[in-house]
Amino acid sequence: MTSSLGFGLGLRPVHYPEIFEGSPRVDWFEAISENYMVPGGRPLHALMRVRERWSVVLHGVSLSIGSTDPLDEDYLGRLKALADRVEPVWISDHLCWTGVSGINLHDLLPLPYTEEALGHVVERVLRVQERLGRHILLENVSSYVTFAQSAVPEWEFLAEVARRADCLLLLDVNNVYVSAFNHEFDPLAYLDAIPGERVRQIHLAGHENNGTHIIDTHDHPVIDPVWSLYAEAIRRFGPVATMIERDDRIPPLSELESELDRARAVASQALKSRRAA
Amino acid sequence: MRLDPLQRAFAGYLLDGTDEIRTAVRPSSKADIDTLLGVYRHGYSARLVEVLGNDFPGVKALAGEEEFEKLARVYVAAHPSHGFSVRSFGDALSEFLRQSPPYSEWPALADMAAFEAALADAFDAADAEPMGPEHMASLPPPAWPTLTFAFHPSVRRLGLRTAAPAAWSTQNAGELPEEPATQAGDWLVWRQGLDVKYRRLDPDEAAALQAAMAGEDFSAICEALAEHGPEEEAAFRAAGLIRLWLEAGLVTGTSHQGQLSG
Ligand SMILES: [Fe+2]
Asked: Among A67, A263, B189, B258, who pairs with B156 as Cys (CB 3.0-4.6 Å)?
């Protein structure tokens, strides 16, 4: 297995001053691809400045790998151009669809886990990897509905996509927790089904619990049960590059550095018990 | 349902409230189908309303929270997104506000939206190396009559009916803006280095810039200026404006007839 990047954060423009003027205890940054797929100006300038000091990975939200619309060649061309410039360690997006009929719904929408969807996604992942000249990472999303015709659970579908398309995985531990709560499955069964050798990155985040369902809001600190699930993931998959996503009510960088310290502590504890096991 | 009709039914539910998708969805033991689907429905419009609020803080400040939320929801319903990024979602907001009652009665709103869209465009327009004012001295006198200009990709000239940019700067300073005065005029928005700038254009400069940005040459720029002031001073005024444009980093190249190379 390739050596881990360590512990990173999602790159957010409100943190630029703290990033450029300080020395944050952050090993790497994840940039949202679409935010930098612009002609020029400050966004790209800032990203290249981050790139001078840190490893960067690109994380997309608009690949729409599961959509029945044709793959967006213009989007892929721009993503490739950004990757050529930034030289990210890897590129990821989500196992979902984000629009249809030429309309972008700007949400990570769930797929039915059918043979038809599996074949469709696999074929598209292969084409995207060909176009980008590299393996991509696919991330599991939080979802609020399941479809009646789903023939297999999400984890089997995800694992099968990864095997057939020979792609890598970004495991969002919070999303596993959220979907497990919403759809009433055992999150450990999910982790057990994941092909560990393909997991290159882990996302951690906070969410909003409405009692009957959890909404993945990325506006709170990571909760204790998600930390426990993270420990279980590290025990299974080893020292995987881990980062915290925060998209709303973004606190000062120092607060996220402390949360990242907790991730380091949880991971190192979990690795000890992994070696002991 | 196969994948394609399922996605169309889901999109139809989010965009138009059609309920075909309900038959494809399973409830959980804790929540019914409408609660679960409602998370997506609510999230869809809330997310795009939030995008507009972030991208158009001036429009939001003028309209007020409540009125803004209302107009944003109408816009979201009328203008589904076609771009890969939310960055372009509000591109048609100014046109929408200009044309749709009751907002069409309130010209400052459409002006503010146009101004904020221009600021956003200038912010991440393509990079290009501007020429400095010293370039003027390097031009041989016979070059001047046919001299044309290439402008930085960020440069925008926009005509407004109100003093919306003044209200924008009040809002940007964290204060509540007053209703912009009715005051027709042209504005220049551009980026110098990484910083977005704007200023009001006098009518003669606006005419000269319009001509220059349309690719017309120095002689034509002088003609445009002659309509706003004494003809004999037009060439002098034109040269002064060009110096100003060069100093502000608006110009990235010039060319003229008989030129061998750039
Ligand atoms: Fe995530």
From this structure: B189
